[in-house]
């Protein structure tokens, strides 16, 4: 027993130290990743040089002034993103370019297919750049759409104010609280009651409501990128990402106060998907306990390996392998094309196949619940 505990402590210690080293490597990387003079936007508009003059960045074709340049930043789905705006000399945008991002590739491809970026051509620099006002979001990529609009506004308004002394419109606080936000709050409250009261019918109600609403309609499943954003400090603005805040911090508060993982138990849309598939097949294959006790540890190792890559790259989406977004939006890249069918087929034969053996989100929240339990146990022990 003593040897087993020592071995476990050594493994945990190695995991923690290696993650800290990876985090340090990522944070200490000062490489400039967005040299604006090498952007595609500059090449398309034959910009030969840029100069910083009296606080303005000006763009030239040979010796002819083309316009002005500025960049803006905001928080997207995967983390921070930066947008470059090139304007003409009359106060209009020539075009915009996303020069740095950590967004999920599938979402950006959807924006390109729907010609989202074309909306920024020839806009007035002092336009509002507001979703549902003068910018149309792309369904299934609304967070990325809004983040790009915010960054573009920041860049455009800098030019409008500094180089043209334009009057800027009042856009208020920009809180985005609509029907879906209220529905998600209601689902979280009901799910908390279902888990706390151990009410199976209520739990199934929230799971399958989430399957439709959080899954297919708003496609807002929590993923490893959601968790790594918190660890990297890339916290999105609550005014523009309220649903993310409700699901992420609502579950973290439930873990802290109740010691319950509400999201995985009663809100995860992909959990509901696996339950449905297993009910349809009626098969529940059991893995031999001697093998299952090792296989069930795999989410922890996958979580560790993924976080190593994420910390070094400072990109929350780079190692997010879950098939959630792909299943509900039918967009995916790379390994997700293999993981999704494997997860769906596995769920036909084993209950919660992906949850038990592969899910890094479940592993993350389970680790927090376990840590809380140990902490509470230690406090009680100290008071005895």
UniProtKB/TrEMBL annotation:
Q: Which UniProt keywords apply?
A: Membrane, Transmembrane, Transmembrane helix
Residue ranges occupied by any FMN-binding domain in the UniProt entry: 76-159
Question: Which Pfam families would you find in this protein's record?
Answer: Fer4_5, FMN_bind
Report whether Transmembrane helix shows up as a keyword of the record. yes
Q: Where are the transmembrane segments?
A: 177-197, 204-222, 242-259, 301-318, 338-371
The protein's GO terms of the molecular function aspect are:
FMN binding
Q: Name one GO cellular component term.
A: membrane
> What is the protein's name according to its record?
FMN-binding domain-containing protein
- What organism does the UniProt record list as the source? Labilibaculum filiforme
